[in-house]
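Hi F.,

I've been meaning to write this up properly since the lab meeting, where we talked about keeping a consistent format for the predictions we share between groups. The idea is simple: the sequence comes first, exactly as it goes in, then the structure tokens exactly as they come out, then a line or two of notes. No screenshots and no reformatting. I'm using this chain as the first example so we have something concrete to point to.
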Amino acid sequence: MTFFERFRDKRSFDYKQCLVIRTDLKLSKGKTAVQASHASILAYERAPKSLRKKWMQEGQKKVALAVPGVKELYLLKEQADKLGVASALVVDAGLTEIPPGTVTALGLGPDKQEILDKITGKLKLL
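Output, unedited:
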């Protein structure tokens, strides 16, 4: 049985990762994808191995979410820190579309879905 066959009929997940992107920067689709990728890897590396393993076994659910500005990213990170959720802010090097040092995204988790929903439950999908 392939990886996709194991997860094709799974209707719910216990774990996920949230990738939160600033919409005020008006990043290109490619730049947005790269910033989300950075957020995913950075947050994953900070998560406990036990959560990473469960998330990987379950199929690595990810959700891309939008916030209007940098202030919201910092508020979400603060909430994550209070709940003990692995998180990582992405700071751009400034080589292409935006100035160096611009905070573009936030990765959260992987962690239990219900915990991440306490932090991101009111955000819109990207």
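Notes:
Helices lie at 3-7, 29-46, 49-58, 70-83, 113-120.
The chain has a mean pLDDT of 93.

If this format works for you, I'll send the rest the same way.

G.
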